Amino acid sequence: MAGTALKRLMAEYKQLTLNPPEGIVAGPINEENFFEWEALIMGPEDTCFECGVFPAILSFPLDYPLSPPKMRFTCEMFHPNIYPDGRVCISILHAPGDDPMGYESSAERWSPVQSVEKILLSVVSMLAVPHCCR
């Protein structure tokens, strides 16, 4: 399973380097471990995060893309979707299945068709328009 995950992560990294989304840089922390990535996210315009650059870590499970990665900011962030330890609370990072809290549709949650780029773009959107976790 880790072989499939590694191939997928390598392909996603290649795509991100060839066509990076504006204001986002992401990739493996080192070439020996493609399962730990660092991301730098520029704060969206017209928000309190504008002009900021926010580092984050993405940790991918060995069964990626069947399971979502975990993401946490490594700097202090005050945002309703970011826990004090930096963990990001956003639907796209929640595993598929039943939602015990009843506030997310299954279409909003993780699925293998999602990608690192979609995660990072969702986080930029989240910074611009916060949604409180319940």
TrEMBL record:
For whether the record's keyword set contains Heme, the answer is no
Q: Sorted alphabetically, which CDD domains does this protein's record hold? A: UBCc_UBE2G2 (cd23796)
Record keywords, A-Z: ATP-binding, Nucleotide-binding, Transferase, Ubl conjugation pathway
The active site lies at: 89 (glycyl thioester intermediate)
One biological process term from GO is:
ERAD pathway
Broadest EC class assigned to this enzyme = transferase
Gene Ontology molecular function: any one: ATP binding
Organism domain of life: Eukaryota
EC number, as in UniProt:
2.3.2.23
Q: Which reaction does it catalyse?
A: S-ubiquitinyl-[E1 ubiquitin-activating enzyme]-L-cysteine + [E2 ubiquitin-conjugating enzyme]-L-cysteine = [E1 ubiquitin-activating enzyme]-L-cysteine + S-ubiquitinyl-[E2 ubiquitin-conjugating enzyme]-L-cysteine
Q: Could you say which residues form the signal peptide? A: none
- Where does the UBC core domain start and stop, copy by copy? 4-134
User: What does the UniProt record say this protein does?
Assistant: Accepts ubiquitin from the E1 complex and catalyzes its covalent attachment to other proteins. In vitro catalyzes 'Lys-48'-linked polyubiquitination. Involved in endoplasmic reticulum-associated degradation (ERAD). Required for sterol-induced ubiquitination of 3-hydroxy-3-methylglutaryl coenzyme A reductase and its subsequent proteasomal degradation.
Oligomer status and interactors: Interacts with AUP1 (via C-terminus); the interaction recruits UBE2G2 to lipid droplets. Interacts with ubiquitin ligases AMFR/gp78 and RNF139/TRC8; recruitment to lipid droplets by AUP1 facilitates interaction of UBE2G2 with AMFR and RNF139, leading to sterol-induced ubiquitination of 3-hydroxy-3-methylglutaryl coenzyme A reductase and its subsequent proteasomal degradation.
Q: What's the family?
A: Belongs to the ubiquitin-conjugating enzyme family.
Protein name (Swiss-Prot/TrEMBL):
Ubiquitin-conjugating enzyme E2 G2
